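Quick question about two entries, pasted in order.
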Amino acid sequence: MGYLVGVVGKPNVGKSTFFSAATMATVPIAAYPFTTIKPNRGVGYVRVQCVCRELGVDDEPVNSVCEDGVRLIPVELVDCAGLVPDAWRGRGLGNKFLDEIMTADALIHVVDASGGTDVEGRVCEPGTHDPVDDIIFLDRELDMWLLGILKRDWEKVVRRSSLAREELLDAIADRLSGLAIRRGHIEDGFKQSGLDIDDYKSWCEDDLLRLVHTIRSIAKPMLIAANKIDVQESEENLPRLRALGYEVVPCSAEAELVLRRSEEKMMTDYKPGDGRFRILEPGRLTQEQLAALEKIQKVILDVWGSTGVQESINSAFLRLLGMIVVYPVEDLEKLADHKGRVLPDAYLVPSKTTAREFAAMIHSDLARNFLYATEARSRMRVGDDYIVKDRDVLSITSSAGRA
């Protein structure tokens, strides 16, 4: 099962621009609330250093892309309509989009770090709105919506005769199962919330809110894309945003979109996440275009190292979700598949994935008939309980053959 990252936030903070820059999908972009009227899904990429250069081979990617030793692995992103206060009550486009957001495994919260949009998403003077409030607001919207879902059956649960610990966990897991919230998330939520699970009948609404907040923080980890970082007030607000405890990535979605579009038109040589770009044919560009590109280099890339869009995607998958990259091969000598393609595939998998679980991601028959796996560098055979490591190159041997 692939993992999904949601791009969330209030209206008019650059969410759709971020999504377009990340996926090069065409979605409406305009400076007014509710530009996005339906959820958009698209493909972005996680950027990692490929193992091809370390292993001294020329790879032939199939499920991903490799350029100059940089492997780009496709991932799914969803961009939802901007949320306004009391969306959890159905205000604005509320519950419809909360449904979509909560199917995501992690969230990128795009915030206008300059404070240039008010609580409803209307444009205002930079510095006149506190972007910290936007993070607190979104946290509350998500928590209150989850609380509403849990409370629908809570009285029925409480009226039952005493439930054993496992039965209570099952009841909560069943209620939240459609939101990509797993049993393990709920167990960890109880541990971290400090609630006495045996005393559930005496819990008040604040106790339930604390529980859903803890579960949501575990099941839907979130980072902040501090957008419009080229505005002076944004840099001033960064320390306060970081003080909330979230990972905060300085970001300019607009600059990334300009660079991606210029690269698409072969005006520049640019890879998402790079700190520099090269203008291919300056004579093809107007003075205005050249000036805009020069500003992006000096004001954003030279100062922050990148536009922050690719870093946000990488952070969501590699840090928040703790995913690693594993390369399956059949031929250990050539590091190739059965068609002779060298390092054809790169899989993003959760950390703590076993060799058998990794085999199942390739094909169910491989897992069912698993015999052993061989790690390409050491040529060591490992069993089905071997925990795969980042950048492993593995050949799976089953009773049906190799993969």
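Here is the second entry:
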Amino acid sequence: MYGVIRNLLFRMPPEAAHHWALRGLDMASSVGMLKAFYPAPERLPVRVMGLDFPNPLGLAAGLDKNADHVDALGQLGFGFIEVGTVTPRPQPGNPKPRLFRLPEHQAIINRMGFNNEGLEHLLARVDRCRYQGILGINVGKNKVTPNEESEADYRRGIAAVYDRADYITVNVSSPNTPGLRDLQFGDQLESLLLAIKDEQGKCEQQHGRYVPIAVKIAPDMDAEGIRFVANALRNTGIDGVIATNTTIDRQAVQGHPLADEAGGLSGAPVREPSLRVIEGLAAELGGALPIIGVGGITDGASAVEKIRAGASLVQVYTGFIYRGPALIREAVEAIRDAGLLNTGEQK
């Protein structure tokens, strides 16, 4: 069934298809069609960052930037849903066109630029949700905020979403906000992580609950970069790391007519770069904090290899666009069959 729907959607421009696909999910959800056609996989519980996930397969940030469709997405069987990236103030993102499909590679290039309706809109949407599962909220900085002032944007985002989120993700790795990835390195990273932990501590005192915070990093770093990031995460007490965001490398899609489009490449071509970073982080961290693996999961086998490499949870986005809801059950069942998880706290 999804194959027919996808063929129709792929006749539209990618951003229009994205909009209508989510509207369609909302309509199907409202009449009970999603649960009928796509029953949730059997439970495969895992405890990570102090949270109990019904299964280890989640939806990555970016698909539902404004938390407009959480209830419908929550009926598809994801173990958790991450919304955002949300910035303190609304921003339109980059000029269109800014989203491109590469079907031959099961890939997407996007240069959306953190287009979102801002914190106020997202919080209002979350407050209206009936979804009872684990919800992550991904926060970023506004494009007009200089890097040297980015700490204030991240503090504002964390403080605003703290009492609505089960966990918070800090995005320092999108290639579509100028200079953002510079925050992953050097003194800027250490300073930002310390500020994040400080804000987390203040929010914990205010709300009387501890909300874990993960940092999302890029796949485009060498072994030295991975070692530096791992040490910074461990030394500052960050609760988790999401590896990885999209890549700016085009080697895997060389020769494609769209290969030179600016933006982040996601989907199957990121499978190996993401895996390399996960393996490097796992070796450097030694279980000090959990890894959430994302990038290039298009089938059960690619989900399993991320768990095998050291991830405790995995997320999908582009693979979900190409494969549809069937990917959720396939990935969860493959992880179960591999016998790689236990029900204790995962590192």
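Reply: The first helix runs from residue 2 to 9. The CA atoms of residues 102 and 108 lie 6 Å apart. Hope that helps.
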